[in-house]
Design a protein that fits this description.
It is built from 1 helix and 53 strands. The chain has 636 residues and is an all-beta fold. Among the domains are: 89 residues, Immunoglobulins (Immunoglobulin-like, Sandwich), CATH 2.60.40.10; 83 residues, Immunoglobulin-like (Sandwich); 47 residues, no CATH class. It has an 8-stranded mixed β-sheet with strand order 34-36-39-38-37-40-41-35, with no helix packed on it. A 5-stranded antiparallel β-sheet has the order 1-30-29-28-27, with no helix packed on it. A 5-stranded mixed β-sheet has the order 43-49-48-45-46, with no helix packed on it. It starts with a helix and ends with a strand.
Length: 636
């Protein structure tokens, strides 16, 4: 272990002291005119990005999204789902532990995190950031997280006593295979059919071995001693270049070896090897010379070399510009959507460089990106193309380019479909996006009148303008979004222009009614032929307006006295109409006093009765007289 630390320290000292040629200090992309270039950026100041993965569209805007896995300031794991159009945050999740690696399957992402010195955990989330499982590994060192055919998860674990193993699990945490070996450096290898794992083992006495493991048989089926194996193995990295070939880098105490393993007929067929100067910096790229093997890009003695994945001969070399020490190499697929091949190189001076590999010619620069980036990765998209994700201490930037093969997308935000408006200026707010060449201009047309207006851009995705519609009627607004290569997207919003208020009438009670009780039914009728009645309110005297339901009646409970009842109706265009009635609520009887004759008076057979009557609330409607227990007779 001490020798390993010493060697890593020496490599770090050499890398830090290496000379490099500074790139231009401005961000630029030198691209042919038929290509386009776009990017968005997101604030990631609260995390250090560890991994970036491409996922299918999660928020319905038809653009693949990006999942970032980062380390927080208190060494926790944070997952951030970013919108593929503009980098806005769609969803976040926070977990315990220091994130180390992350891989994406067909529908899930697995994240390896260290929670203690010898305790690790693998979190599995769906692309929607819903947790699927949590697999805890105690008293082990876990690394080299992989997936097989996008369905199963494989990782290597090492016990503290330096015995090791390989575990294969389902995303739900079920253990499918457990391989125990003396010591291993894992590479999960998936030819057709997808049933194999290639792993590398090392021991003090037996040296270095390459083993082919069959997952269906749960057994080793072939192994071979690593040619030219040196005394101590420090690090292995491996990647597939075809369905029958894997490329690996082995760093030892004195040399770095680039190797290629060929597998045929369920056995390790043969191995290529060559010594390189690079300290374990390589990436598998596309087959640039069309011989059936994906190729390898490495740094060797200050040069960037494309090595054939089948023969290990040099294919291309870039030596015209001193690039300095390379931190990582990113292989890109269909980055510019043409027949060329592109790769990205992150330098140890925190600069990102884009290279192009035209068929039959040398490597060429196509862009420098300066911003003190510590992270670079290719983010795959559902259309098979790559985007580049860069990260510095504050920002994550997503870069993509290529000829524009996709249609832009837009939507009318205001007025919404089915809206009713009053005559006059109609404010239009629309969103428009294009993930490749970008939005050129946005136009709104009125199909019935032929009017049109070009909307003005007010933000990256929002556009604003006005149209004047003075005549009542139904109109169709057509939104047309054009990108920079002339592709067009159209959507529609149907609106009503209404200047006529509703018709509102009382049904009961009648105006100036006198009611003998305070609880009564208020009923009305309403109609609006254009946009329809949206709301109706009532008020008693000077009270606030109270909403009423659409049944056309309500029950009121009012105090004794004279009251003004107001009804107000409003249609969907905002036109109002109001009307009022007056009612008297009188629940107190009138006052009456007989003036003549007085009580117990003696009168003749014929006499005149006089009286006085009053009512404080309403009025005296009539009077009745009754003698003894006879009938009541109306007298006034």
């Amino acid at each position: 272990m001490n020798r390993w630390l010493l060697a890593m320290l020496m490599l770090g000292i050499v890398a830090a002291s290496a000379a490099w040629q500074a790139p231009p200090s401005v961000r630029a992309a030198i691209l042919p005119q038929h290509r386009t270039f776009s990017y968005w950026s997101a604030n990631v100041s609260d995390i250090q990005v560890v991994a970036a993965l491409g996922v299918s569209d999660r928020n319905g805007d038809q653009v693949p999204d990006t999942l970032l896995i980062g380390r927080t300031s208190d060494n926790a794991t944070k997952l951030v789902l970013l919108d593929g159009c503009d980098g806005s945050i769609v969803k976040e999740a926070l977990e315990e532990g220091n994130p180390k690696e992350a891989v994406a399957g067909n529908w899930f992402v697995a994240v390896l995190a260290q929670v203690d010195t010898y305790d690790y955990v693998v979190y599995v989330y769906s692309f929607d950031l819903e947790k699927v499982s949590r697999m805890y590994q105690s008293n082990k060192i876990v690394k080299n997280l992989r997936t097989i055919t996008g369905e199963d998860i494989v990782w290597q674990y090492v016990w503290v006593g330096y015995y090791a193993g390989i575990r294969r699990c389902s995303p739900y945490g079920n253990i499918l295979n457990d391989i125990v070996v003396e010591y291993c450096y894992l590479y999960t290898y998936t030819p057709v059919p997808p049933r194999y794992i290639v792993y590398f083992t090392w021991s003090d006495t037996a040296g270095n071995w390459i083993t082919l493991y069959d997952l269906e048989q749960s057994a080793d089926i072939d192994y071979v001693k690593d040619p030219n194996a040196l005394d101590i193995l420090y690090k292995y990295r491996a990647d597939a270049v075809s369905n029958s070939t894997a490329v690996y880098v082995r760093t030892t105490s004195t040399d770095t070896v680039l190797g290629s393993i060929h597998i045929a007929n369920n056995s390790i067929n043969y191995i290529y090897q060559r010594y390189i100067d690079s300290p374990n910096v390589f990436a598998v790229i596309d087959d640039v010379n069309d011989n059936g093997y994906r190729d390898v890009l490495v740094e060797d003695e200050g040069k960037v070399i494309v090595v054939d994945g089948g023969t290990f001969d040099n294919v291309h070399t870039l030596s015209s510009v001193g690039v300095g020490e390379i931190e990582s190499i990113t292989a890109l697929t269909n980055f510019l959507n043409d027949t060329y091949h592109e790769v990205g190189i992150l330098l140890q001076n925190e600069t990102f460089m884009l290279l192009q590999i035209p068929p039959g010619s040398a490597l060429e620069h196509i862009g420098w990106y300066c911003g003190r980036y510590y992270f670079a990765a290719a983010v795959g998209c559902s259309d098979g193309a790559s985007r580049v994700m860069l990260a510095n201490k504050t920002t994550a930037m997503c870069i993509w380019g290529g000829a524009d093969y996709t249609t832009p997308y837009g939507n009318i935000l205001r007025p919404q479909d089915g809206s009713a408006l009053q005559p006059g200026d109609v404010e239009i707010l629309a969103s428009a996006r294009d993930t490749e060449s970008g939005v050129s201009h946005v136009v709104v047309c009125v199909e019935e009148s032929g009017q049109s207006v070009e909307l003005q851009r007010i933000s990256d995705t929002l556009f604003y303008g006005t149209l004047r519609l003075d005549q009542e009627g139904k109109y169709t607004l057509a939104l047309q979004v054009f990108d920079r290569v002339g592709r067009r997207y159209t959507c529609w919003s149907r609106i009503i222009v209404d200047a006529t208020p509703p018709v509102l009438e009382y049904v009961e009670p009648a105006n100036n009614s006198v009611l003998g009780h305070g609880v009564f039914r208020l009923a009305w009728s309403w109609v609006d032929e254009d946009s329809g009645v949206a709301n109706c309110y009532y008020a008693i005297d000077d009270s606030e307006l109270y909403p009423v339901s659409a049944e056309g009646y309500c029950w009121l409970n009012v105090s004794e006295g004279k009251h003004r009842i107001t009804l107000l109706a409003q249609d969907y265009a905002g036109n109002n109409v109001s009307t009022c009635i007056y009612v008297i609520v009188d629940t107190s009887p009138p006052q009456c006093c007989i003036l003549y004759p007085s009580s117990k008076a003696i009168v003749s057979a014929s006499f005149t009765v006089t009286w006085v009557a009053s009512d404080a609330i309403s009025y005296i409607a009539y009077s009745e007289v009754s003698i003894d227990d006879g009938s009541w007779v109306r007298v006034s």
